[in-house]
Amino acid sequence: MKTSTFFTLLFVVGLMVVSILYSGFSCRDDKSDRSIRQRRPVADPRIPIFKSFNFQMDQSTIPNIEHYYEKMKTGSSSCDCPGLKHGPLTGMTRERQRKEHSEWTAENERNREPIAVCHAMSPISYLGSGISVEPLESVRLVGLRFHHDAIMLLQERYRGSELSIAFKTRAHLGTLYVDVPKDELPNVKVEGNATYELEIITRRHADALNSILEHVIFNSTQYVVKGRETIDVVFLDFKVSVNILVQRSVIPVLHDTGPRSSDISHKVTVATKTFGRYSAVNRLVRSIEKRYPNVTIVIADDSKNPEQIQGRHVKQYMMPFAEGLNAGKNLALSQIRTKYFLWVDDDFVFTDSTKLELMLAKLESPGAELDLVAGMLQDKGGGIRPCGKENCWRTMYHRQGKDGHCVHKGKLWQYKTVEEFPNCQVLDLVTDFWMAKTQAVRKTGGFDIELERIGHREFFVDAIGQLRIAQCDDVSILHAPVTNKEYEKYRRMEVQPSEKQRYVDHLLFKNGLQCFESWFPKLISKPLLNDQKRT
Prior knowledge:
By secondary structure, this protein is an alpha+beta fold. It has 13 helices and 28 strands. Strand 22 and strand 23 form a beta hairpin.
């Protein structure tokens, strides 16, 4: 019994070894072209192993690439928003939105990572992705190589027959060529050198294939800022696809913090926007200068009756009257010269708990990989809260349906804390007391100037997928509200009755939304009107 078991195990192990020797990956990605010219040798029945392993793959069993995209989707193809919601747009505005969204989707699909479908039993090893090249430059197709055992079998099986391996570009962003002189490989013929289709043919010298594969080069001939080329490589009935990223290198944008880099004033600028609340903004400046006397303070001001804001390092930029909140934010952002900046509302007050060094440490930590860090809000009674009292959003649920995107309030703790800083919660939205990397915020496009009276959550909607955000409980700032009739009149959209409707319509259109849950129920209580008359 023991002897029988031993031989059974030995037989199973033998099968596994054979499987490992001849298994690999053959990858085919989207938009595959099967028109590459092939030379298919006749199978030799004298070699038993090739009766079951014919170096062939049944292409009819390969699903269409779109099948995989569909299978990746989970849940319903539709979406909706709970509670008080706005949307969808109707009439001609809806048609224009569909057209714009279709163009956006097409551009996203052009830039998405190609799907590579991998099948077992390929004699060729290769790099399916990871090869990149500058436009109008060249790169070797590194990684292409026949398995040693496959070479040995080919030499036995196809003795005296021609073997060929064919290459073809799909996007025609460049050509293919072999840079080996003919006299170095006398028994190898290359057809189509320096064209979109290349074929390497050898007779009686299967071992020469690996030598020549090391010298196959892709030469970019089209100038593109970013493009993707796929090269189909065919040997017998096997096809593998090598993806090449053709991209212009990005020039770094660096910030010199100077010889006194330990001084936070060389790294951080404080920025704010004010409108008719000079008592508040002057109080903010005094509180900053008390604790950080050398930090630059950038203030955008669109007040009706301008006043000079006093401060040693204050830069006050005047704007046309009531130009808008986000226009002011963009103006302030454009004037920041430091690597980081702190955004605050003009009715905030620095306290002993407003420790900018702690926020900066988190942004500078390479392990945390944060782009924006927020603190907490103090009230006059000493309480600490993560955000304002009015319908506090911290995470956002976003889904793309067949007819557009849906956005509504998410679950509070659906994300984890930052591993290096357990007191920091990863979030989508935070209060208007945050420090960020200047270049990271600029790359999002900044702040939408169409939003003149409101502009908080909207920035974070636009930043989804672009900024990694966290809120930490070890830094706080006092919120001491100051108001007046002029401020409230504009803040609550009472100047133009149509302002509320324009605000809703703009958000729906710009973000391709089918609907969004209202985050200001008191401010925008009227449901969206049919816009057929407003085309």
